[in-house]
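Reviewers of the previous submission asked for a worked example of the structure-prediction workflow described in the proposal, so we include one complete record here. The input consisted solely of the amino acid sequence. No template or homolog information was supplied to the procedure at any stage.
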Amino acid sequence: MPRGGEGRLRWPAPISRRRCSARPSSAPPASARAAIDRRALPLPHAGRPVRVDHVVPDALGGPSILSNAQVLCTDCHDRKTQNDRMRIDKALRLSDAHHGIRDPHARPIAVGQPLPPGKPARRATAPLTKPLPPRRSLCVSEPR
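From that input alone, the workflow returned the following structure tokens.
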């Protein structure tokens, strides 16, 4: 990873939009405290660390206001974040496709070009090398 000034890591521009959707929280700590105080019911995992999360993520158009905040335990927050990142990545892919942006690392698709000539197809079974045994005749036995 390239290093920026003062020993901090920085992402290259093409990768940052695709792979790293994390960014510093825009909500001040007072809003986080207000979200924790606002919840009426105790958490199912009482005594465990909690995180304040957006109900609708910023990247999907969610506002940074108190009514869009929820308090989750770390396990639930991690599961929700994983689901949110999949939705964000899909939205970015659809947006890129709509605007004609292509991934430079994608394999080009051959459109309208004939396939190169190849070896002739092989048979599924090898041809018979010895003759088959004689077939049974269909004789109807006479009653005795």
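Residues 27-98 form one domain. We consider this example representative of the routine output the project will generate in years two and three.
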